[in-house]
From TrEMBL:
<dbReference type="InterPro" id="IPR044924">
    <property type="entry name" value="HAD-SF_hydro_IA_REG-2-like_cap"/>
</dbReference>
<dbReference type="InterPro" id="IPR051828">
    <property type="entry name" value="HAD-like_hydrolase_domain"/>
</dbReference>
<dbReference type="InterPro" id="IPR023214">
    <property type="entry name" value="HAD_sf"/>
</dbReference>
<dbReference type="InterPro" id="IPR006439">
    <property type="entry name" value="HAD-SF_hydro_IA"/>
</dbReference>
<dbReference type="InterPro" id="IPR036412">
    <property type="entry name" value="HAD-like_sf"/>
</dbReference>
<dbReference type="Pfam" id="PF00702">
    <property type="entry name" value="Hydrolase"/>
</dbReference>
<dbReference type="GO" id="GO:0005634">
    <property type="term" value="C:nucleus"/>
</dbReference>
<protein>
    <recommendedName>
        <fullName>Haloacid dehalogenase, type II</fullName>
    </recommendedName>
</protein>
Length: 252
């Protein structure tokens, strides 16, 4: 389902362009074991689960939305997420060794601010190249802190996009329409001329619709569980589906 009428496109980042290279839960445990003094009882590598991380992230996002904008850095916000993701015995160990705990938080925060911690989905570079060939202006719009700019540079994606807009710098998160309106302003177009593509039904799809943009929900692993409120014609299974037909043919 290639699209040919859009000259302005915005793309979500996490889950759309990139994802952590390794399990976040496993990385947390590895860093803990390498930085913190040893515990009496050995730590299993599955001491932290993806569910634990998700719970901690959602809890902190509810308590202090948008990575804690009241601070000068998102690091304190992420520090609370990191600590809360660990089980109680590991949290107690961090409280008993505060200097090491600070080193652990600093190391994890720095790690996920580098491109080496992330991988780009296989359809991303061909899509960006094709959009560039078609003279389509492209921006990245993401609920992310200010580290995203460095990550995009490290992954050599910066030259393929016109700008990176994070919720941290905009001071408002998707699905609020204002971040999409700011993207349209930067692209020198009106919202209805803009196509947004992302993988989150609420933040990306509903947010872009509320802002007056066209939108496609990206479901790479489409297993029939697409949100029923999203029309099937608004669902794509690859970023290449948004590429104009002529340019897409060059990528095949």
């Amino acid at each position: 389902m290639a699209l040919g009428r859009f000259s302005y496109v915005t793309l979500d980042a996490t889950g759309t362009l990139l994802r952590p290279k390794h399990s976040v839960a496993a990385v947390y445990v590895d860093f803990f074991m390498s930085i913190m003094p040893p515990l009496v009882i050995p730590i299993p590598r599955d001491a932290v689960s993806v569910k634990d991380f998700g719970r901690s992230f959602k809890s902190e996002m509810t308590r202090a939305p948008n990575f804690g904008l009241d601070a000068h850095s998102a690091k304190p916000w992420w520090g609370r997420v990191i600590v809360d993701a660990f089980p109680s015995n590991m949290q107690a160990h961090m409280q008993a060794h505060p200097k090491h705990a600070t080193q652990l938080i600093d190391a994890l925060y720095e790690h996920y601010g580098q491109g080496a911690a992330w991988e780009v989905f296989a359809d991303v570079r061909p899509t960006l190249n094709a959009l560039k060939e078609a003279n389509v202006s492209v921006g990245i719009v993401s609920n992310f802190d200010d580290r995203l700019h460095g990550i995009v540079r490290d992954l050599e994606l910066a030259s393929a996009v016109d700008f990176v807009l994070t919720s941290w710098e905009h001071q408002s998160m998707k699905p609020h329409p204002s971040i999409f309106h700011e993207a349209a302003r930067r692209l020198h177009c009106r919202p209805h001329e803009l196509l947004h593509v992302g993988d989150d039904p609420t933040n990306d799809y509903c947010g872009a619709v509320a802002a007056g943009c066209s939108v496609r929900l990206l479901c790479r692993n489409n297993n029939g569980t697409v949100d029923p409120s999203v029309p099937i014609e608004h669902v794509v299974t690859s970023l290449l589906d948004i590429v104009p037909s002529k340019e897409r043919g060059r990528q095949d």
